[in-house]
Amino acid sequence: MDLGLAGKWALVCGASKGLGLGCAQALVREGVNVVINARQAGPLYSAAIDLIAINATGERAGGQNVSKTQVLEVAADITTPEGRAAVFSVPGGPGRDFDIVVTNAGGPPTGDFRDWDREAWIKAVDANMLTPIELMRATVDGMAERGFGRIINITSSAVKAPIDILGLSNGARSGLTGFVAGAARSSIAARGVTLNNLLPGKFDTDRLAATLGAAATRSGRTLQEVRSAQQAGIPAGRFGTPQEFGAICAFLCSVHAGYITGQNVLADGGAYPGAF
Length: 276
Known about the structure:
By secondary structure, this protein is an alpha/beta fold. It has helices spanning 18-29, 41-56, 81-88, 118-146, 167-183, 206-219, 223-232, 242-253; strands spanning 9-13, 33-38, 71-75, 100-103, 149-154, 193-200, 264-267.
């Protein structure tokens, strides 16, 4: 399927590895020019090399030849005004005229809410709620003027089924979810701009590996025992891959998804037990 994205510009945050990189890979395969962002320059450079290698084939995922796309990297803290300014001013980039914005920030620390002070809450809300809103604010009007725009916020399955030790994430990401529900249904909806949230369950990433390792240490079980037990709790019987997560993201960015907006798209292998 041709997603109709060739030649467009995307900003993908948290793109040095994991789900963000999976999204960038899928978009590059569709002929999208990408600006990738993360804090650490080394991993981000490696991600850019990976994307350039994909781009070098000159083939879209459907097998059709496309012109080479651009891959630009900006190592900066996107949660700061300086970081956002760096992304919007990268040489060769589109400025603020992105057609696609994929927001993505690492989850805040786990723990007991009794131990979190105001500073911990402000940091979580800043990264996981206010930064995505700032990126929307900077780009959405230009999208509306051009008649096309896609904003995807990578949040968490915990928005649907909160987890007690993830209180900082539950609170901040739920705030973003409520904001998107209203903003997506504003005047921009009739001007070709969609806002959606993509909620990952357990995907095979470095972050999950660290979580499994910590669980193994706490429980005294082996890493493989913990991994197998968690996979057994997922109806699909496995963890997801960043590549299939990226494919979902790319579809939501496509011309075919223009009638999907204000939604929370859950990708968790069927782990969430509810009907709604």
